[in-house]
TrEMBL record:
Annotated organism of origin: Saccharopolyspora erythraea (strain ATCC 11635 / DSM 40517 / JCM 4748 / NBRC 13426 / NCIMB 8594 / NRRL 2338)
Name of the protein in its database record: Oxidoreductase
Pfam families reported for this sequence: adh_short
Entry keyword set: Oxidoreductase
PANTHER family: ALCOHOL DEHYDROGENASE-LIKE C-TERMINAL DOMAIN-CONTAINING PROTEIN (PTHR47534:SF3), YALI0E05731P (PTHR47534)
GO molecular function, a single term: oxidoreductase activity
């Protein structure tokens, strides 16, 4: 199952696994892109193994609906690959009143990672691959303003989101000690993709540079394919491309992870 599977690295991963004989579920917002994916699958004769589910993952309710649908239709999930993202130069609150980046880049991944654990545990060698930017040594978490009500900047939201996902990985491993499911935080580096988002002039210039100078999608996903094929032995691991990231750094602080997990659980309960 691949979120953000309608474009960029998510779509390329979906294509690879489909062609190799796997059953693949992709999730995205854009019905047209979803249909394109299914048409391409028909073209290579594997339509019956391809599923597109339309969902706006910036909404917690849609993530919960997705968890329920997967539980019913696909009881065993070998790999959950988390690729949905959308940059916003200006702050937006979702219909549920959450800051959009916090909701899509972090809350969605929290709900899906924990919510699909039962499905993952039914697989032989289950793994979650969370596409983010593990171990970044810049930026910070605004504990008193996680949804960036003050001084919002798109880059602040993106960098903080990466840090929240590092802590999600730590808390996931800590909360499911006996699980066979491996959690992998994966940073692809700068890769030339669609860069889903709404940009201002400054951020658009950065995206234009990244599109022109980023690595190819094929290079960006190659280590992730290997991680799905042979998940690491450790419950939690992190990689930037194929280079392991030490989990000893500040980004993976266990007490921060537990604090964030508690805050998130409380927020979802409310
Ligand atoms: N590209 C890079 O340089 C880079 C660097 C570091 C990390 N990453 C990470 O790698 C992952 C993949 O990035 P990418 O650049 O390949 O992605 P991308 O080309 O920008 O595509 C983003 C995907 O997210 C989906 N999406 C956006 N908003 C959504 C929503 N509200 N609900 C559901 N789906 C939504 C889009 O689907 P629709 O179009 O159907 O909405 C699309 O499939 C992301 O997690 C990103 O943070 C990328």
């Amino acid at each position: 199952m691949i979120t953000g599977g309608t474009d960029g690295m998510g779509r390329a991963l979906a294509q690879i696994f489909l062609e190799r004989g796997d059953q693949v579920v992709i999730v995205g917002r854009d019905e047209r892109k979803g249909r394109d994916f299914l048409d391409a699958a028909t073209g290579i004769g594997v339509r019956e193994r391809a599923t597109f589910i339309a969902a706006d993952l910036s909404l917690v309710g849609e993530n919960q609906r997705l968890v329920e649908r997967i539980a019913t239709d696909f009881p065993a999930v070998d790999a959950l690959v988390l690729c949905a993202r959308h940059y916003r130069a200006t702050r937006l609150e979702t219909g549920e009143g959450r800051e959009h980046g916090f909701a899509l880049f972090y809350l969605s991944r929290f709900v899906l990672s924990h919510g699909l654990l039962g499905n993952l545990e039914k697989a032989e060698s289950p793994v979650v691959v969370n596409f983010c930017g593990p171990g970044a040594d810049f930026g910070e978490i605004r504990w008193d303003d996680l949804e960036l009500a003050r001084d919002y900047h798109g880059n602040t939201a993106m960098v903080q989101g990466g840090k929240l996902n590092d802590l999600l990985g730590v808390a996931f491993a800590a909360h499911h000690p006996g699980a066979r499911t491996r959690y992998v935080l994966y940073g692809p580096g700068m890769v030339s993709t669609s860069f889903s988002g709404e940009y201002d002039a400054e951020s658009a210039a950065h995206v234009a540079y990244a599109k022109a100078n980023g690595r190819s999608v094929a290079d960006g996903i190659a280590p992730a394919v290997a991680l799905v094929d042979s998940p690491p032995a450790e419950p939690l691991s992190a990689f930037n491309a194929d280079t392991p990231v030490s989990l000893a750094g500040r980004s993976f602080d266990r007490s921060d992870a537990m604090r964030l997990h508690a805050l998130t659980s409380e927020l979802l309960r409310r």
